Amino acid sequence: MQILPATEDYGIVFQRADLSDNALVHAVVENVAKTRRSTALAENGVQIRTPEHLLAALRCLGVDNALIRLNAEEVPILDGSALPFVHALRECGLNEQREDRRYRVVRRHAEYHDPHSGSWITVDPCSDLIVDLTIDFKSGMIGRQKACYDTTVDFATQIAPARTFCFYREIFMLRLLGLIRGGSLDNALVIDDRKNCFAGGKTPLFDNEPARHKLLDLLGDLTLAGLPIQGRVTAYKPGHKTNTQALKQFIADAVL
Ligand SMILES: [Zn+2]
Protein backbone atom coordinates (compact mmCIF):
# COMPACT_ATOMS: atom_id res chain seq x y z
CA MET A 1 0.00 0.00 0.00
CA GLN A 2 1.18 3.51 -0.84
CA ILE A 3 -0.35 6.75 0.43
CA LEU A 4 0.11 9.61 -2.07
CA PRO A 5 -0.71 13.33 -1.82
CA ALA A 6 -3.80 14.64 -3.60
CA THR A 7 -5.13 18.08 -4.49
CA GLU A 8 -7.72 20.09 -2.55
CA ASP A 9 -11.23 18.58 -2.54
CA TYR A 10 -9.98 15.29 -4.02
CA GLY A 11 -11.11 13.38 -0.96
CA ILE A 12 -9.78 9.98 0.05
CA VAL A 13 -9.69 7.62 -2.89
CA PHE A 14 -8.40 4.05 -3.19
CA GLN A 15 -6.80 2.78 -6.37
CA ARG A 16 -6.49 -0.93 -7.12
CA ALA A 17 -3.17 -0.65 -8.91
CA ASP A 18 -3.19 -4.43 -9.51
CA LEU A 19 -6.25 -3.99 -11.77
CA SER A 20 -5.79 -0.65 -13.57
CA ASP A 21 -5.08 3.03 -12.98
CA ASN A 22 -8.82 3.65 -13.41
CA ALA A 23 -9.85 1.11 -10.76
CA LEU A 24 -10.81 3.76 -8.22
CA VAL A 25 -12.97 3.45 -5.12
CA HIS A 26 -13.98 6.66 -3.36
CA ALA A 27 -14.12 6.44 0.43
CA VAL A 28 -17.76 7.49 0.71
CA VAL A 29 -20.66 5.77 2.43
CA GLU A 30 -22.53 5.30 -0.87
CA ASN A 31 -19.82 2.76 -1.76
CA VAL A 32 -20.29 0.55 1.32
CA ALA A 33 -20.80 -2.97 0.01
CA LYS A 34 -20.44 -5.27 3.03
CA THR A 35 -20.21 -4.77 6.77
CA ARG A 36 -19.57 -8.23 8.19
CA ARG A 37 -16.72 -7.99 10.73
CA SER A 38 -15.18 -5.15 8.71
CA THR A 39 -16.24 -2.59 6.15
CA ALA A 40 -15.91 -3.31 2.42
CA LEU A 41 -16.27 -0.66 -0.29
CA ALA A 42 -17.09 -1.23 -3.94
CA GLU A 43 -17.36 1.08 -6.96
CA ASN A 44 -17.92 -0.07 -10.55
CA GLY A 45 -17.18 -3.67 -9.54
CA VAL A 46 -13.87 -2.78 -7.87
CA GLN A 47 -13.69 -3.78 -4.21
CA ILE A 48 -11.62 -2.64 -1.23
CA ARG A 49 -11.73 -4.36 2.14
CA THR A 50 -10.91 -3.26 5.70
CA PRO A 51 -10.25 0.44 5.06
CA GLU A 52 -11.57 1.55 8.50
CA HIS A 53 -8.38 1.69 10.57
CA LEU A 54 -6.52 3.60 7.86
CA LEU A 55 -9.48 5.96 7.36
CA ALA A 56 -9.58 6.72 11.10
CA ALA A 57 -5.85 7.51 11.07
CA LEU A 58 -6.20 9.79 8.03
CA ARG A 59 -9.17 11.67 9.47
CA CYS A 60 -7.81 12.05 12.98
CA LEU A 61 -4.42 13.27 11.70
CA GLY A 62 -6.27 15.83 9.59
CA VAL A 63 -5.71 14.31 6.14
CA ASP A 64 -8.63 15.25 3.87
CA ASN A 65 -7.12 14.39 0.48
CA ALA A 66 -5.07 11.31 -0.39
CA LEU A 67 -4.74 8.64 -3.04
CA ILE A 68 -4.24 5.18 -1.55
CA ARG A 69 -2.67 2.73 -3.98
CA LEU A 70 -3.19 -0.96 -3.23
CA ASN A 71 -1.91 -4.05 -5.02
CA ALA A 72 -4.67 -6.24 -3.55
CA GLU A 73 -8.24 -6.05 -2.31
CA GLU A 74 -7.47 -5.72 1.38
CA VAL A 75 -5.84 -2.81 3.19
CA PRO A 76 -2.99 -4.43 5.19
CA ILE A 77 -4.22 -5.42 8.65
CA LEU A 78 -0.70 -5.03 10.13
CA ASP A 79 -0.99 -5.37 13.92
CA GLY A 80 -4.79 -4.95 13.91
CA SER A 81 -4.57 -1.33 15.07
CA ALA A 82 -4.12 2.04 13.35
CA LEU A 83 -0.74 2.79 14.93
CA PRO A 84 1.45 1.74 11.95
CA PHE A 85 -0.57 4.09 9.71
CA VAL A 86 -0.08 6.96 12.18
CA HIS A 87 3.67 6.33 12.24
CA ALA A 88 3.87 6.20 8.43
CA LEU A 89 1.86 9.41 7.99
CA ARG A 90 3.90 11.25 10.62
CA GLU A 91 7.17 10.05 9.10
CA CYS A 92 6.34 11.30 5.60
CA GLY A 93 4.90 14.58 6.90
CA LEU A 94 1.74 16.43 5.91
CA ASN A 95 1.17 19.48 3.73
CA GLU A 96 -1.25 22.23 4.65
CA GLN A 97 -3.43 23.01 1.63
CA ARG A 98 -4.85 26.35 0.55
CA GLU A 99 -8.60 25.73 0.55
CA ASP A 100 -10.56 26.11 3.76
CA ARG A 101 -11.60 22.77 5.20
CA ARG A 102 -15.27 21.96 4.74
CA TYR A 103 -17.32 19.97 7.26
CA ARG A 104 -20.48 17.96 7.49
CA VAL A 105 -22.24 19.80 10.28
CA VAL A 106 -24.85 18.04 12.45
CA ARG A 107 -27.95 20.23 12.12
CA ARG A 108 -30.29 18.65 14.66
CA HIS A 109 -30.75 15.68 16.98
CA ALA A 110 -31.28 12.43 15.10
CA GLU A 111 -31.23 8.73 15.96
CA TYR A 112 -30.61 5.47 14.18
CA HIS A 113 -31.64 2.17 15.82
CA ASP A 114 -30.80 -1.31 14.60
CA PRO A 115 -33.68 -3.53 15.77
CA HIS A 116 -31.69 -6.77 15.24
CA SER A 117 -28.64 -5.99 17.35
CA GLY A 118 -30.18 -3.44 19.72
CA SER A 119 -27.38 -1.05 18.81
CA TRP A 120 -28.01 2.63 18.18
CA ILE A 121 -26.28 5.86 17.21
CA THR A 122 -27.46 9.40 17.89
CA VAL A 123 -26.07 12.74 16.68
CA ASP A 124 -26.45 16.22 18.12
CA PRO A 125 -25.13 19.63 17.12
CA CYS A 126 -21.75 20.55 18.66
CA SER A 127 -18.93 22.88 17.63
CA ASP A 128 -16.36 20.04 17.57
CA LEU A 129 -16.39 16.33 16.90
CA ILE A 130 -17.11 14.42 20.10
CA VAL A 131 -17.71 10.67 19.99
CA ASP A 132 -18.99 8.77 23.05
CA LEU A 133 -19.20 5.04 22.76
CA THR A 134 -20.41 2.17 24.95
CA ILE A 135 -20.02 -1.53 24.28
CA ASP A 136 -21.91 -4.22 26.19
CA PHE A 137 -20.87 -7.83 25.59
CA LYS A 138 -22.19 -10.89 27.36
CA SER A 139 -18.71 -11.71 28.56
CA GLY A 140 -17.14 -11.65 32.00
CA MET A 141 -13.93 -10.50 30.32
CA ILE A 142 -15.35 -7.41 28.65
CA GLY A 143 -18.92 -6.63 29.68
CA ARG A 144 -19.75 -2.94 29.58
CA GLN A 145 -16.99 -0.52 28.59
CA LYS A 146 -16.89 3.09 27.48
CA ALA A 147 -14.50 5.12 25.34
CA CYS A 148 -14.57 8.75 24.24
CA TYR A 149 -12.92 10.85 21.55
CA ASP A 150 -12.83 14.65 21.57
CA THR A 151 -10.35 17.40 20.81
CA THR A 152 -8.47 16.75 24.09
CA VAL A 153 -7.85 13.07 23.29
CA ASP A 154 -4.55 12.27 21.56
CA PHE A 155 -5.62 9.86 18.82
CA ALA A 156 -2.08 8.56 18.24
CA THR A 157 -1.53 7.37 21.82
CA GLN A 158 -5.08 6.80 23.12
CA ILE A 159 -7.09 5.32 20.24
CA ALA A 160 -4.80 4.27 17.38
CA PRO A 161 -2.96 1.51 19.34
CA ALA A 162 -6.19 -0.36 20.28
CA ARG A 163 -6.18 -3.69 18.43
CA THR A 164 -8.91 -5.67 16.74
CA PHE A 165 -10.44 -8.23 19.09
CA CYS A 166 -12.58 -11.31 18.85
CA PHE A 167 -13.81 -14.11 21.10
CA TYR A 168 -12.13 -17.49 21.08
CA ARG A 169 -15.59 -19.12 20.82
CA GLU A 170 -16.22 -17.28 17.51
CA ILE A 171 -13.06 -18.31 15.71
CA PHE A 172 -14.25 -21.66 14.36
CA MET A 173 -17.40 -20.10 12.87
CA LEU A 174 -15.54 -17.10 11.46
CA ARG A 175 -13.05 -19.39 9.73
CA LEU A 176 -15.90 -21.50 8.36
CA LEU A 177 -17.40 -18.34 6.87
CA GLY A 178 -14.06 -17.55 5.21
CA LEU A 179 -13.59 -14.49 7.39
CA ILE A 180 -10.48 -13.53 9.43
CA ARG A 181 -8.28 -15.51 7.04
CA GLY A 182 -5.47 -13.11 7.84
CA GLY A 183 -6.25 -13.21 11.55
CA SER A 184 -3.66 -14.40 14.04
CA LEU A 185 -2.51 -13.69 17.58
CA ASP A 186 -0.18 -11.11 16.05
CA ASN A 187 -3.00 -8.87 14.88
CA ALA A 188 -5.92 -9.50 17.22
CA LEU A 189 -6.68 -9.67 20.90
CA VAL A 190 -8.42 -13.01 21.33
CA ILE A 191 -10.65 -13.17 24.39
CA ASP A 192 -11.05 -16.63 25.92
CA ASP A 193 -14.17 -16.49 28.10
CA ARG A 194 -13.90 -20.11 29.25
CA LYS A 195 -10.47 -19.58 30.76
CA ASN A 196 -11.01 -15.92 31.62
CA CYS A 197 -7.86 -14.83 29.84
CA PHE A 198 -6.53 -13.45 26.59
CA ALA A 199 -5.29 -16.19 24.26
CA GLY A 200 -1.53 -16.47 23.85
CA GLY A 201 -0.93 -14.91 27.26
CA LYS A 202 -1.46 -11.43 25.80
CA THR A 203 -2.34 -8.49 27.97
CA PRO A 204 -4.52 -5.59 26.85
CA LEU A 205 -2.84 -2.21 26.31
CA PHE A 206 -5.72 -0.42 28.08
CA ASP A 207 -8.38 -1.63 30.55
CA ASN A 208 -10.96 -0.80 27.89
CA GLU A 209 -8.99 -1.72 24.77
CA PRO A 210 -12.04 -3.35 23.07
CA ALA A 211 -14.11 -0.16 23.55
CA ARG A 212 -11.23 1.93 22.23
CA HIS A 213 -10.99 -0.33 19.18
CA LYS A 214 -14.72 0.02 18.53
CA LEU A 215 -14.18 3.78 18.74
CA LEU A 216 -11.38 3.46 16.18
CA ASP A 217 -13.72 1.51 13.89
CA LEU A 218 -16.47 4.10 14.32
CA LEU A 219 -14.10 7.01 13.60
CA GLY A 220 -13.01 5.15 10.46
CA ASP A 221 -16.56 4.51 9.32
CA LEU A 222 -17.56 8.14 10.04
CA THR A 223 -14.80 9.19 7.62
CA LEU A 224 -17.07 7.79 4.89
CA ALA A 225 -19.18 10.95 5.35
CA GLY A 226 -16.64 12.34 2.84
CA LEU A 227 -15.91 15.40 4.99
CA PRO A 228 -15.02 15.71 8.69
CA ILE A 229 -18.11 15.64 10.90
CA GLN A 230 -18.79 18.51 13.28
CA GLY A 231 -21.14 17.29 16.00
CA ARG A 232 -21.60 14.96 18.93
CA VAL A 233 -21.96 11.27 18.12
CA THR A 234 -23.18 8.85 20.78
CA ALA A 235 -23.04 5.14 20.00
CA TYR A 236 -24.28 2.08 21.89
CA LYS A 237 -22.96 -1.34 20.87
CA PRO A 238 -21.98 -0.07 17.41
CA GLY A 239 -20.65 -2.24 14.60
CA HIS A 240 -19.79 -1.54 10.99
CA LYS A 241 -23.37 -2.16 9.85
CA THR A 242 -24.88 0.24 12.38
CA ASN A 243 -22.14 2.83 11.77
CA THR A 244 -22.61 2.93 8.01
CA GLN A 245 -26.42 2.57 8.00
CA ALA A 246 -26.70 5.42 10.51
CA LEU A 247 -24.43 7.59 8.39
CA LYS A 248 -26.48 6.85 5.27
CA GLN A 249 -29.71 7.71 7.07
CA PHE A 250 -28.34 10.94 8.56
CA ILE A 251 -27.11 12.08 5.14
CA ALA A 252 -30.37 11.08 3.41
CA ASP A 253 -32.40 12.96 6.06
CA ALA A 254 -30.16 16.04 5.64
CA VAL A 255 -29.16 15.85 9.32
CA LEU A 256 -25.52 16.04 8.20
ZN1 LIG B 1 -11.40 -2.72 13.58
Overview of this structure, please?
It is globular, with a radius of gyration of 18 Å. It is built from six helices and 16 strands. The mean pLDDT is 93. α1 (52-60) crosses α2 and α5 (209-222) runs parallel beside α6. Strands 8, 9, 10, 11, 12 and 16 form a six-stranded mixed sheet that branches. It has a four-stranded mixed sheet with strand order 1-7-2-3, with no helix packed on it. It has a three-stranded antiparallel sheet with strand order 4-5-6, with no helix packed on it. With 256 residues, the protein is α/β, with parallel strands linked by helices. The two termini are 31 Å apart. Zinc ion is lined by residues 52-53, 164, 213, 217.
Number of DSSP helices? Answer: 6
How much of the sequence lies in strands comes to: 25-35%
- Helix-residue proportion: 10-25%
- From the spread of the alpha carbons, the general shape counts as globular
Order of helices and strands: EEEEEEHEHEEEEEHEHEEHEH
Unreliable parts: none
- How much is the radius of gyration in Å? 18 Å
